[in-house]
Design brief:
The structure is a single chain. The chain has three helices and seven strands, in the order H-E-E-E-E-E-E-E-H-H. The protein is an alpha+beta fold. A hairpin with a 5-residue loop joins strand 2 and strand 3.
Length: about 220
């Protein structure tokens, strides 16, 4: 019901305005909060790629794709170990929805019927334990999807070359060690034994001594 007293309405309006007016008073907080440094685990890693996207995982039991979250997908390279991992956090909660290494065996391909999406398999650690997952990710454009695929392929190719080089070096080292062992065996065979190194003069003296020690047979 509308008020019939305009003066009373004016007084109420002035009171409300007074309540909203900033008096400039300083209010001391009851609890003092100290600044906390939040670590993400990405401090020792360099960002190779950072793209906004939407991630899905395939639910084998339900035989369907389920959304994991929307956020920024990153490819991070560790400064010391040089390992590359894929990490994605949900935009609002920052909850990790994907976290796995990019391995030489990782295969990625476009999703059938959608050139903005691609799929791959990985041993993921987002839930705190290693689980084999099948992921599908969708980007806002074909160019971003292609950029992601090409970057992954470049990383896996580099890892494969490094593995091949390490394997070659290991084989060469093993072959060198084997050759050293063979040479050592040959040298051991060529070294004369203690019997072979006996002085002939010593052998002659030893023979004469034995002859003198043998008693002569008496004749009856």
């Amino acid at each position: 019901m509308a008020s019939t007293n305009p003066n009373r309405d004016d007084e109420a309006a002035e009171t409300a305005a007074g309540e909203d007016e900033d008096t400039g008073a300083q209010i001391t907080p009851i609890v003092a909060l100290s600044e906390v440094t939040v670590t993400t685990g990405e401090e020792d890693e360099d960002v190779l790629l950072d793209l906004k996207s939407k991630l899905y995982r395939f639910d084998k039991e339900g035989n369907q794709w389920k959304e994991r979250g929307t956020g920024n997908l990153k490819l991070l390279k560790h400064q010391k170990t040089k390992k590359v991992r894929l990490v994605m956090r949900q935009a609002k909660t920052l909850k990790i929805c994907a976290n796995h290494l990019v391995l030489p065996s990782m295969k990625i391909q476009e999703h059938a019927g959608n050139d903005k999406s691609c799929v791959w398999h990985a041993a993921d650690f987002a839930d705190g334990e290693l689980k084999e997952e099948m992921f599908c990710i969708r980007f806002g454009s074909v160019e971003k999807c292609r950029n992601f695929i090409e970057t992954i392929e470049s990383i896996t190719e580099s890892l494969q070359n490094s593995s091949a080089e390490e394997s070659k070096e290991s084989s060469e080292a093993a072959e060198l060690l084997l050759n050293l062992r063979v040479d050592d065996s040959k040298e051991a065979k060529d070294v004369p034994s203690a019997a072979d190194s006996t002085n002939p003069e010593d052998e002659k003296s030893a023979t004469e001594s034995k002859a003198e020690e043998q008693p002569t047979k008496s004749k009856d």
